[in-house]
Every structure is written in C-alpha cells, then in structure tokens.
Amino acid sequence: MLKRLLPCVGKYKVYAVLAPLMMLIEVTMEVLLPIVMKNIIDNGIQAQNTEYCLKMGLLMIGMSLFSMLGGALSGKFAAIAGTGFAKGIRKSLFEKIQDFSFYNVDRYSTASLVTRLTTDVTNTQLAFMTVIRILVRGPAMLIFATAMAITINPQMSIIFAVAIPVLAVSLFFIMTKAHPRFRVMLKKYDNLNSTVQEDLVAIHTVKSFVREDYENKKFKDCSAEVRKTQIFAEKLVILNGPIMQLCMYGCMIAIFFFGAKFAIAGTMTEGDISSFITYVMQILMSLMMIAMSLVQVVLSRASMARIVEVLDEKIDIDDTTADPSLKPEDGSIVFDNVKFGYAKDGGNLVFNGIDFSIKSGETVGIIGGTGSAKSTLVQLIPRLYDVCGGSVSVGGHDVRDYKLKNLRDDVAMVLQKNVLFSGTILENLRWGNENATMEQVIEAAKAAEAHDFIMSFPDGYETDLGQGGVNVSGGQKQRLCIARALLKDPKIIILDDSTSAVDTATDARIRAAFRNNLKHITTIIIAQRISSVSDADKIIVMDDGKIDGIGTHDELMKSNEIYREVYASQMKGVE
In the Cβ-directed half-sphere of 21, how many Cα atoms lie within 13 Å? Predict the structure, then answer.
C-alpha cells in the first residue's frame, strides 16, 4: 500500500525529508541536555562554582532554543508534506473515478466513494504526518536515550531489556487484532454517509410524506451502529494505555530502588542519578509515542486499503489501443448479435443476440414496459457499458475502435435522471460546448423549448440554478438537459425518457423542432407515451431484454400485440 500511495507525495518530497531531519535535531538537543545538567550538578553545584553553573546554564538555554527551532520547523514541514500528500491522494482518487465506466461505478456506492475521499484520506494524512515526525522522534529518542543511559550505568539499563519486550508483544497483539475491527467500523461509516446523503437529496419527498420521524430513527440506528463498532475497535486499542503505564511505573520503581543502592555504594553521583532518571523518562515517553503512533497507523491501514482498492480498480472500458484519429463519419448505428450482462462473466444475460440497424438521420422510438432494458440498450451506443458478445457499430466502425472522447463527443445522451450543476443556466448549457456562442446557446434552447421559460426569469440565462437545479421544475430541468446535449452538435442524440415531465403539447413541439431543424442528427427517443414516438421513422418494441417488434406506428398496430395493448391502454386513459 505504501508503494502505491507514496508517489502521491509528489513535489512535497523535500518537505517530507526535511521534517524528520529537523526532528532529529530536536531529539539530539534533548538527549544532550541531561549530560549538561549532570555536569552542572557534579562540577558546578557540588564544587560551588557559580561561573561554571552560569556558563552551562547559558549553554542549556541555547540548546533548548535550538531544539525548539528544530521541533517548530519539523511541525511546519510535516504539515506541508501531509496536506500535499492528502491533496495528491484526492487528486489520484478523483481522476481514477472520472475514468470509471458505469460497471465500475456500480461496484461502489456514492457514499462509500465520498467516505474514501474524505475520512479515509484524512486518516491516511494523519498517519503520514505521524510517520515522518513521531515515528522518527520516538525510535530516535529511544535509541539515543538508551545509549546514554547505558554509558551512565550499564547494570541499571537491564531494566529496559525487560520492559521493551513486554511492550513490543502487547503492541503486536493490539495491531493485528484491531485492524479488522477498524475495517468494519469504516464500512459502517459508509452506511451512515449513505443514509445522510439519501435523506438530504430526497428531503422534499421526506417532508411531503411526513416521514421525518422514520428518517430520524434510521439515522439514529446507523449512528448507533457506528458507535458500537467504534467502541468494539477502540476498547482493544485502549489497552495500550494501561500496559504502558504499568511498564513506566514499574521501571521507575526499579530505578529508584537500584539507584538508591548504587548511590549509597558511591558508584553513582547525584548528577548520574538525575540524568539517568531523565533518560528513563525520555525512553518511556518515546515508547508511549511509538505505541500511540502505531495505533494511528493501524487505524489508517484500513483507510489506506480502501483507497488503494479504488486506485487499483481495473477500468472496465479501455481505449488505449483505439485509433485517436478515428471519428464517426455519420450517425448510423448497427447492433450485430449483441450480448450483454452486468455480471461480465457471460451468465445472466440481459441481451442475448440483439440485431437491428438505424440509418443516419433517422428518428427511432423505443418503447416497452418497465424493466424491459430500454435504457441499457442505448447505453451501449456511447460505450457506457461494453458488450459481452457481438458488436455495436457507430458511423461504420465498432465503438471499441474509437477513443472514448471521440465517440462520446458525437453521441449526446440525456439520461433518465436529469442532472444540473450549481451555477448559472448559461454555464450549465455550455457543458455541452464550452466555446458555444450566445447565438448557438439560444438556438439550442429554442429547439428544446427552453428559451421562453429561461427568459421569464429576471436574470435570463444568467439565472443561478442552485445545487442540482433546485429552483426549476422537473420539465424545465429536462428541457435544459436536452438543450445542453444539442449544443454538442452531435451526430446521434439519445433521449432516455427525457420528456416524461413535459406536457404533450411541449413534447410535440420539441419533436417538431428536431424533425424540421435537426434532420442530420440521428435521434433515438425512449418513451412511455406512444404519442412521443408515433411519428418516428421506426419504433423498436422491447420486452424483457428482447426485441418484440420493429416497424412504423401503422405497421406495429397491425403486427405487434404488445404495441397494440399499450396504445389501447393509453387511448382508453385519454378517453
């Protein structure tokens, strides 16, 4: 995992190296201070040499200031390196997610990806800063202070030989057992974030159905699960504290006991005892720092694994071997014995041998019941999913022969879920073409029957939509999405039930505008209303992943039972 994540440090490597170097300066000064103190006690105070005490005192002040400077610079450099590291991870994660196909996105929930980009990255950042500072300071202090203690009294230093193995075994046990528990805790965080996200997105529905109490209970239950798993993980980690205290006070008692004997025997001076106790405190504090740092690393290990899981996710759709110069010549479409399944293993196929063709410039309607795989069918055209067998061709070439950008620039798709982004109407429309002129924007808006309602707003095209387009209706949102797609000037446009929220008169005007002004564009319309597709050049009737019939409205009325039943039910509703 470290090998996978360390390149994210990027240009902040210098700071990541300077932070531990400055920390070593701080540690060196702190380890040398007890020696100066020993000399003051033995050579200054005992000899009543005031001048020597003053000189050594000034030296201690200078060393302390130098130590403080090293610690402050280490903290600053670690903060810069840590935030830079987190920035690099977030950038890598976000760019990876942008490359995901629909299949890859389906493997992760939105809440899980958000948790990985936030909580998991923060945990990893804290662990990184801990490693380059505390896990440098702790071992360095432990080694230097132990070496100095041995030089003062090797016999008393045997005490550490007993305490350190006890701590090492305890820490190893805690680390190996705590890691799985923290992984479970982070999954519960995913569930909590999913609940919060779902509730906030659907807040209008919650209020309209007066389901606040239900949502509060659901949130409370998820929050309780997080608390439960967190306590389960933490109650193992907190054992570190009592074990550390036991070793610390045990060492102190042993040192005072044996130190008193050595002092009485005259083998240790007052300065030796004072400096030895100081080194003992440094050793024990360094052990505590190491223990707490390793706990942080254990927690972050689960987060790092989740981050690396996303970074190592194999992209389902690969266009590296495609010809970058190849672009669709026209809007013709051919499905040749197409097989597709979400499992990607050839089993549980949604389509098993789909065949049909569409000429460039034709208007094609697709109709069928809920779950008949209409949306899945058209998502194969811009290669949002890849076929398991057979081929889909656009403009005379297999879609796999195109670079994704070249293919999708010429295939505009308005999905069932209409998404607008925070910003003005103009900014949202120019998502289709960032270089579009105002005349082109207005022309596309008129074709989508959106221009009039846009101009009804006081600020017109500069109206701020808010996050997700909260201040426009469902029908207005659909028309804005259609206009945005038209601005791409594509060879193929796919409307996936994209006029369901507009009235039939507006729907008819949109289709008339397409028919009269956009004859060069191949138009595919998925609809529930037969009136939306009745004037299409051909209509495809879908039923449970199969094509039940293809023809014009009149032909299907004569030959296709499903089409006649849908027509009859809708006409009966009209009557």
Answer: 7
